[in-house]
């Protein structure tokens, strides 16, 4: 379980995350949705100890993220932010191998190698494994980053807009993979998503943020409703049920 | 692996050539004829072998310093001479020479290294304040900072009649290397070993602060270790033989083009490449105007700037 209590972040006078208290259940997929500038990414960065918070506490699986040893947290929780600029020229396999760093500190065991190969195959990167990251397309690079996080094999997986740069096929594949990780491996997956239809289709739990605060949260079925979504995004959103899935329509 | 051995062999050949190039007749026949007490043997032991060892140590450690710098700053175009590090080391050496002329060289080197560390920290501080982190802006900021520190150093040296010494420190030259006057350079080898031991940590740091934290490493601590290595190497090389420009820039970039940036793999390449390059430039400097010598910093400056231009002008795929 991830528990945040009164988490706050200010940039100068602007309060980006304003006293957020949340309990995200262990297991399943939780999606954080909301308009631009709602504080979703900032919240995720603070939960994953990438950013210091001004106020409040966060525990992940019982570990306080500000005081627990960073390498222990790295075996418990993995985080991938959006817009990763990588200046280092690494091959895909090198990158994914570094996902095992929290366990092996660079001396890879047979077990580590198994994790690495599995992650590469899961993300359909076998043919690209020897290529340098700067030779890949944005989508291929994104998959390589996710493979690294997967190789890290943590109970908690936090991804900030993992569908960035992905085409439909790979976006769907990525969400299926997250579902598999949650259902079969019992991982807790927390995603920041912009596409509310992907959120609707794959999430167990949805948290909506607006102006730095949690404006609504609940099971996906309760959240994907026209009145809830229209309020969050301040626009007219219709929800249709197609083949048992709630699909939002907001294109015009 | 086989190509690495080939590179090692090439560098060894250069080292052997380096031992036998010079005004004094030192050759295998002259050594055999003269025996252990001959002048040839004396030149070999007091001058030629120390010079060659100094070249190898300085070359390898300067190249490694450049590599570490590029990883922790996450910029391809930084090395001690484009970040104010070398200039700060010179300032430190000048200050300690003025205030405590009697101190042993090791202590003076220590002061110089502390100044180098301070100068590099200042550089990073300024970088954080510069909003535009353009790839080429970073070394430009460093060169400007180096210029300011260099001007201050020159002013002090001018007022204290130490311009000649300052000129010697700024101009890397191995012609003065004799037994007993280069041994400090072994510290550079220690730094290379440290860089190899911490190679994975530096590679992770090269992936950025967020990745480093995600993998459970303390980013600040890795940065600090890197800066200590870079400062020590800069100070040691400056104090022993004078600064060698471009080396830390060219060698790691060429290696990165060849085999990427995973430091566990690149450290041996960069070390061997750096040693080989310095040996080749020094041999060239000794032969071009034989029997006179051209200082290595001049040769390196010409060769290095040409290669640097090449690296700049090729589409910088890996640089952005």
Automatic annotation (TrEMBL), chain A:
<dbReference type="GO" id="GO:0005524">
    <property type="term" value="F:ATP binding"/>
</dbReference>
<keyword id="KW-0408">Iron</keyword>
<dbReference type="InterPro" id="IPR003593">
    <property type="entry name" value="AAA+_ATPase"/>
</dbReference>
<keyword id="KW-0410">Iron transport</keyword>
<dbReference type="GO" id="GO:0016887">
    <property type="term" value="F:ATP hydrolysis activity"/>
</dbReference>
<dbReference type="InterPro" id="IPR003439">
    <property type="entry name" value="ABC_transporter-like_ATP-bd"/>
</dbReference>
<dbReference type="Pfam" id="PF00005">
    <property type="entry name" value="ABC_tran"/>
</dbReference>
<keyword id="KW-0813">Transport</keyword>
<keyword id="KW-0406">Ion transport</keyword>
<dbReference type="InterPro" id="IPR027417">
    <property type="entry name" value="P-loop_NTPase"/>
</dbReference>
<keyword id="KW-0067">ATP-binding</keyword>
<feature type="domain" description="ABC transporter">
    <location>
        <begin position="2"/>
        <end position="236"/>
    </location>
</feature>
<keyword id="KW-1003">Cell membrane</keyword>
<comment type="similarity">
    <text>Belongs to the ABC transporter superfamily.</text>
</comment>
<protein>
    <submittedName>
        <fullName>ABC transporter ATP-binding protein</fullName>
    </submittedName>
</protein>
<dbReference type="GO" id="GO:0005886">
    <property type="term" value="C:plasma membrane"/>
</dbReference>
<keyword id="KW-0547">Nucleotide-binding</keyword>
<dbReference type="InterPro" id="IPR017871">
    <property type="entry name" value="ABC_transporter-like_CS"/>
</dbReference>
<keyword id="KW-0472">Membrane</keyword>
<dbReference type="InterPro" id="IPR051535">
    <property type="entry name" value="Siderophore_ABC-ATPase"/>
</dbReference>
<dbReference type="GO" id="GO:0006826">
    <property type="term" value="P:iron ion transport"/>
</dbReference>
TrEMBL record, chain B:
<feature type="transmembrane region" description="Helical">
    <location>
        <begin position="222"/>
        <end position="255"/>
    </location>
</feature>
<feature type="transmembrane region" description="Helical">
    <location>
        <begin position="267"/>
        <end position="288"/>
    </location>
</feature>
<feature type="transmembrane region" description="Helical">
    <location>
        <begin position="53"/>
        <end position="73"/>
    </location>
</feature>
<keyword id="KW-0813">Transport</keyword>
<dbReference type="GO" id="GO:0022857">
    <property type="term" value="F:transmembrane transporter activity"/>
</dbReference>
<dbReference type="Pfam" id="PF01032">
    <property type="entry name" value="FecCD"/>
</dbReference>
<keyword id="KW-1003">Cell membrane</keyword>
<feature type="transmembrane region" description="Helical">
    <location>
        <begin position="184"/>
        <end position="202"/>
    </location>
</feature>
<dbReference type="GO" id="GO:0033214">
    <property type="term" value="P:siderophore-iron import into cell"/>
</dbReference>
<dbReference type="InterPro" id="IPR037294">
    <property type="entry name" value="ABC_BtuC-like"/>
</dbReference>
<feature type="transmembrane region" description="Helical">
    <location>
        <begin position="136"/>
        <end position="158"/>
    </location>
</feature>
<protein>
    <submittedName>
        <fullName>Iron chelate uptake ABC transporter family permease subunit</fullName>
    </submittedName>
</protein>
<keyword id="KW-0472">Membrane</keyword>
<dbReference type="InterPro" id="IPR000522">
    <property type="entry name" value="ABC_transptr_permease_BtuC"/>
</dbReference>
<dbReference type="GO" id="GO:0005886">
    <property type="term" value="C:plasma membrane"/>
</dbReference>
<keyword id="KW-0812">Transmembrane</keyword>
<keyword id="KW-1133">Transmembrane helix</keyword>
<feature type="transmembrane region" description="Helical">
    <location>
        <begin position="113"/>
        <end position="130"/>
    </location>
</feature>
<comment type="similarity">
    <text>Belongs to the binding-protein-dependent transport system permease family. FecCD subfamily.</text>
</comment>
<feature type="transmembrane region" description="Helical">
    <location>
        <begin position="88"/>
        <end position="106"/>
    </location>
</feature>
<feature type="transmembrane region" description="Helical">
    <location>
        <begin position="294"/>
        <end position="313"/>
    </location>
</feature>
């Amino acid at each position: 379980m991830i528990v945040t209590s009164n988490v706050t972040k200010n940039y100068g006078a602007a309060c980006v995350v304003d006293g957020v208290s949340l309990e995200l259940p262990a297991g399943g997929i939780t999606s954080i949705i909301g308009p631009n500038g709602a504080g979703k990414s900032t919240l995720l960065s603070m939960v994953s100890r990438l950013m210091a918070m001004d106020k409040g506490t966060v525990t992940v699986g019982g570990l306080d993220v500000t005081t627990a040893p960073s390498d222990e947290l790295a075996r418990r929780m993995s985080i991938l932010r959006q817009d990763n600029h990588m200046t280092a020229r690494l091959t895909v396999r090198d990158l994914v191998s570094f996902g095992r760093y929290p366990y092996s500190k660079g001396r890879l065991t047979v077990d580590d190698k198994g994790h690495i190969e599995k992650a590469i195959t899961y993300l359909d990167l076998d043919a690209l494994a020897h290529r340098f990251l700067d030779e890949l397309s944005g989508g291929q690079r994104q998959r390589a980053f996710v493979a690294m996080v997967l190789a890290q094999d943590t109970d908690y997986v936090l991804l900030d807009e993992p569908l960035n740069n992905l085409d439909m096929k790979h976006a769907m594949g990525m969400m299926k993979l997250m579902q598999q990780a949650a259902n079969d491996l019992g991982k807790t997956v927390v995603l920041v998503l912009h596409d509310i239809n992907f959120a609707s289709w794959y999430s167990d739990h949805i948290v909506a943020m607006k102006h730095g605060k949690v404006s609504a949260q609940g099971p996906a079925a309760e959240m994907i409703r026209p009145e809830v979504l229209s309020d969050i995004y301040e626009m007219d959103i219709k929800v249709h049920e197609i083949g048992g899935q709630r699909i939002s329509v907001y294109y015009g | 692996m086989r190509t690495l051995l080939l590179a090692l062999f090439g560098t060894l050949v250069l080292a052997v050539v380096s031992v036998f190039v010079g005004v004094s007749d030192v050759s295998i026949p002259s050594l055999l004829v003269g025996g252990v007490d001959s002048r040839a043997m004396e030149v070999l032991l007091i001058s030629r072998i120390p010079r060659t060892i100094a070249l190898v140590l300085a070359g390898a450690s300067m190249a490694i310093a450049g590599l570490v710098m590029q990883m922790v700053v996450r910029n391809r175009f930084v090395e001690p001479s484009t970040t104010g590090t070398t200039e700060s080391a010179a300032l430190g050496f000048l200050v300690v020479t003025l205030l405590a002329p009697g101190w042993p060289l090791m202590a003076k080197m220590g002061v110089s290294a502390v100044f180098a560390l301070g100068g590099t920290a200042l550089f990073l501080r300024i970088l954080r304040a510069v909003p535009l982190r353009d790839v080429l802006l970073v070394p430009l900021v460093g060169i400007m900072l180096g210029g300011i520190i260099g001007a201050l150093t020159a002013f002090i040296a001018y007022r204290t009649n130490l311009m000649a010494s300052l000129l010697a420190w700024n101009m890397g030259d191995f012609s003065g290397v004799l037994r007993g006057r280069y041994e400090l350079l072994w510290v550079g080898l220690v730094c290379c070993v440290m860089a190899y031991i911490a190679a994975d940590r530096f590679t992770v740091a090269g992936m950025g602060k967020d990745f480093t934290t995600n993998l459970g490493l303390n980013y600040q601590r890795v940065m600090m270790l890197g800066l200590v290595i870079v400062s020590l190497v800069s100070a040691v090389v400056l104090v022993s033989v004078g600064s060698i420009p471009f080396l830390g820039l060219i060698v790691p970039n060429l290696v990165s083009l060849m085999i990427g940036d995973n430091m566990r793999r690149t450290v041996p390449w960069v070390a061997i490449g750096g040693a080989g390059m310095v040996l080749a430039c020094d041999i060239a400097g000794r032969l071009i105007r034989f029997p006179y010598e051209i200082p290595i910093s001049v040769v390196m400056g010409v060769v290095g700037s040409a290669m640097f231009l090449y690296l700049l002008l090729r589409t910088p795929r890996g640089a952005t």
